Amino acid sequence: MIISHKNHYIFIHCRKTAGSSISLMLSETLGPWDVQLSAVSETLQAGGTIPVRMWAEAIGRSGSSLLFHLMRGKGKKKATDALAAGVKRAYQQRLGRKPQHADAEKIKLAFPREWDSYSKFCVVRNPFSLAVSDYIWRTRNLSMRPSFPEYIKALAAGDDLGGVVPVGFYNNWRQYTIDNRIVVDHVIKFENLSHDLGKVLSTLGVPFSGQLPRVKDVKSKNRENPPLTSYRDYYTREAVEIVSNLYRYEIDAFGYTFA
């Protein structure tokens, strides 16, 4: 999530919708007192900067760990990871366990003035594609990964398969709705990302080249089961039915289909 006081918007970072890439791009336009909770490590590792406010709040939460990595020269990644962890801890009490993916209701309660006066936008994605993307990401380093139908059946049953399946945190519906009502001003479709994002940012006066950086390429250790060419190739008839039920609100709201 990003709250830009400079440009008067709230970007709600929905999972598996290029949110980290968007956050990295937006970081170049933020002011010193803006709130950046998404792609903190990625921004710094790419040579960018995060708002001064984030440094101050992170050091307040993990100063000793952060300074240790910086002083001992333990590497840029460890230092930026420590900074990102400090930023996350600084907002968990107000925004929940994953503040970078906070629900709309929590954002509204934590930042009521900004919520009422700033433009709010997010990106949504076909749930049939999103579920596969999440599956590939979460099983990328498993030597014995479950099949996608097994993964989806476990998700529906509330079985996390030892921490692999994101039970209770698999869709994005509550991030941009309150009481099942969409409460953001702009909903961008992942399937038309560059065009729709450009239109929204233009209304906000935020420059956009039309290109987004890639920050989360999947590098799997599982060489025996490389990703298939289309999300449809992962599905059985039962898996289609399960995903249709799990993501029924998004499917109904945006007219997504399996075809």
Give your account of this protein's structure.
By secondary structure, this protein is α/β, with parallel strands linked by helices. The chain has one domain. The protein is built from 11 helices and 7 strands. It has helices at residues 19-27, 40-45, 52-72, 76-95, 104-110, 112-117, 127-138, 148-157, 193-204, 237-246, 248-254; strands spanning 2-4, 9-12, 35-36, 119-124, 177-178, 181-182, 186-189. The strands form 2 sheets. A 5-stranded mixed sheet has the order 3-1-2-4-7. The protein has a two-stranded antiparallel ribbon with strand order 5-6. Helix 3 (52-72) packs antiparallel against helix 4 (76-95) and helix 8 runs parallel beside helix 10 (237-246). It holds the Pfam family Sulfotransfer_2.
